Amino acid sequence: MTSPGQSTRSTAPVFVVGCPRSGTTLLYDMLLSAGGFAVYLAESNVFNLLVPRFGNPGVESSRRRLLDVWLQTKLFRAGHIDPTSLRSRLEAECHNAGDFLSIFMDEICRKQEVGRWADNSPEEMLYLPLIKHLFPTALVVHIIRDGRDTAASLHKQGWIRPLPGDSRLIASGLYWEWIVRKGRTYGKALGEDYTELHFEDLIARPKEILAELGRFLEHDLDYDRIQQAGIGSVGQPNTSFPLESKKAGFSPIGRWKRTFSASELAEFEGAVGPYLQELGYETSSGVDPKQSSKPARKCALYRRYFDTKIWVKSTWLYRTYYRLLDKNLNISRINYIVMADDVTPPPVRLPLTSDSNLGKSG
Rounded to an integer, what distance in angstroms lies between the CA atom of residue 81 and that of residue 362? Predict the structure, then answer.
């Protein structure tokens, strides 16, 4: 609830989105470390995983199936709240996916005595029109990272399945371009409620970037406080290259220079080089993608491939498969794929400074 003298924007929910492995978790944890946000060390996955698998939680039968599974997963346990109270509210007040997420986060806010929440589920970017419809005051922060570093991390994780005969690394780069384009298209339709920032700028100039973001969110993102609290990946890097993170001088920027071979770089920039340049990243292989129609054909093929996968998730057959799946298997599959810390309790919150400091970075 907004207090007297407080703007709606200063209490609006915040959605941190971006291509997976682009720094969404770091940015989200920075928001939590700043104070004033509910600490939920997980990606909710409501729109991109739970709803596609279980259906609209506003429908009683769908909600019952969802709760039977979700309440036994890390996604719920990471909230550290009473399931009885939550279930009662969901039964009485949940009419759609937005209500489901809002009620869950409101319960976390109530327990932690804070007035605002944020959500970090990178692929929610694909559902921004629906999210904005369900949360009219929502603010969206899209973090963009060099596609070469993002693809190197996605490749290391093995998350993107290439088409037969193709390289997983190139498929990861094409996925990066596809989802970032989608997010920017949807985001620009949101007007002043959408902003973009680059991961590299956040790492190189954190005080300045956080100050700008603080003004957008109308929230005090004090860099010194964030460093002191050190929640989640602020204190412990969330990296696909854990051995590197232990070395002196560790930097997540420009890793592609050490991991790409010359031929991989040429093929990669031949496929997504123009979009890298459009986003302000310099290419270095000397390949001109305009000289060949092969990258254009491959890009078009992968766009259809990724679009089809998202469409399949919206079908009745997809939901039916998961409805027929054994409950315990459903639970274990969700726990396996989601990012959630259901062990670490919420830390003691640092007090926020006065409203006069909103948007300042110390």
Answer: 33
Q: Which residues pair with 37 in a beta bridge?
A: 116
What per-residue confidence (pLDDT) applies to 357? 42
Q: Which of 50, 52, 30, 47 is nearest to 39 (CA)?
A: 30
CATH code where residue 138 lies? 3.40.50
Residue 361 within a domain = no
| Dist CA 207 CA 283 (whole Å) | 28
What is the rounded CA–CA span in Å between residue 112 and residue 319? 34
Show the low-confidence residues of the chain (pLDDT under 50).
1, 240-248, 353-362
Residue 103 lies in a domain: yes
Length of the chain: 362
Neighbouring residues of 220: CB distance < 8 A, sequence distance ≥ 6: 34, 35, 36, 214, 352, 353, 357, 358, 359, 360
125: three-class secondary structure by DSSP: helix
pLDDT of residue 362: 33
Q: Confirm if 182 and 18 have CB atoms less than 8 A apart.
A: no
Share of the chain above pLDDT 90, in %: 75
User: 84 is in which domain, residue-wise?
Assistant: 12-161+179-236+316-342
- Read off the pLDDT of residues 145-162 as tens digits, 9 standing for 90 and up: 999 999 999 999 888 999
Integer angstrom CA distances of residue 228 from 39, 223, 231, 238? 15, 9, 9, 18
Q: Is 127 exposed, middle or buried (0-12, 13-18, 19+ CB in 10 A)?
A: buried
- Tell whether 22 is covered by a domain: yes
Interatomic CA distance for residues 47 and 27, integer angstroms: 20
Is position 167 within any domain? Answer: no
pTM above 0.85, yes or no: yes
